[in-house]
Amino acid sequence: MEIDELIEIAKKSVVNCYAPYSKFHVVSVLEAEENLFFVGVNVENVSFGLTVCAERIAVFKAVSEGYKEFSKILIYSPDGMPYPCGSCRQVLAEFCGKSFPIYIASNREIKVFTLGELLPHTFSL
Ligand SMILES: [Zn+2]
């Protein structure tokens, strides 16, 4: 799908974010195949360490449905540029190669990086 289509999907899902503490709403749209994508939103918890980012929720939804190969991810927020945290970068690295495209968008700008640019040295066994 075109990135504009993924952004429209993300905008419609902002309402599902659960971000009462940070007020920073994030939606990820992870594309597995053409017209097959998984949406994740950030889900916060009053015990802050239990919060899970939108990116990891999208990845875990996809993997739990049997998909482990992805073509791109969009991370969108209406509240600012939602650069992925280190944990999410490492989780993406479990399934995606260094050339995997990561689109990061707010209502004002959009940037694209490869996973290798955002996480040049991954942990591996
Ligand atoms: Zn994260």
TrEMBL record:
Cellular component GO terms, alphabetically?
A: cytosol
Whether Zinc counts among this entry's keywords is yes
Q: Which InterPro entries match?
A: APOBEC/CMP_deaminase_Zn-bd, CMP_dCMP_dom, Cyt/Deoxycyt_deaminase, Cyt_deam_tetra, Cytidine_deaminase-like
Q: Where is the active site?
A: E55
Domain CMP/dCMP-type deaminase residue range list: 1-125
Under Pfam families, the record lists: dCMP_cyt_deam_1
- Enumerate the PROSITE patterns for this protein: CYT_DCMP_DEAMINASES_1, CYT_DCMP_DEAMINASES_2
Q: Which domain of life does the UniProt lineage start with?
A: Bacteria
Binding of Zn(2+), residues: C53, C85, C88
What molecular functions are annotated in GO for this chain? cytidine deaminase activity; identical protein binding; zinc ion binding
Using the UniProt record, name the top-level EC class of this enzyme in a single word: hydrolase
Name the GO terms of the biological process aspect: nucleobase-containing small molecule metabolic process; pyrimidine-containing compound metabolic process
Write the Enzyme Commission number(s) for this entry.
Answer: 3.5.4.5
Summary of the function given for this chain in its UniProt record: This enzyme scavenges exogenous and endogenous cytidine and 2'-deoxycytidine for UMP synthesis.
Q: Which family is annotated?
A: Belongs to the cytidine and deoxycytidylate deaminase family.
Q: What is this protein called?
A: Cytidine deaminase
- In which organism is this protein found? Desulfurobacterium indicum
